[in-house]
Specification:
- With 81 residues, the protein is of the alpha/beta class.
- A 4-stranded mixed sheet has the order 1-2-3-4.
Length: 81
């Protein structure tokens, strides 16, 4: 696949992206960071945007390109936050 056509990973947070043990999450987040240049990361969550922003306080947590939050009523570009 060409880097001109990135992969899109759209994922829920609770029990999915935030699931697993601390070790499993750390390994997964490290993997995502390694291939971040080829990946468009989208968080789809019922939670509010502020909750997702609070997750970014952990420097190992991958910050999304887009967030679809508030039960789908809010869509924001990650860089605008």
């Amino acid at each position: 696949m060409s880097s001109d056509y990135p992969l899109i990973l759209a994922t829920d947070l609770d029990g999915t992206f935030l699931g697993g043990s601390d070790e499993q999450r750390a390994e997964f987040y490290e993997y995502l960071q390694k291939y971040r240049h080829r990946l468009l990361l989208v968080f789809v969550t019922g939670r509010d945007i502020e909750f997702v922003q609070s997750l970014s306080e952990d420097s190992k947590f991958p910050y999304p390109d887009y967030i679809i939050g508030d039960v789908g009523t809010t869509i924001v570009h990650g860089k605008t936050l």
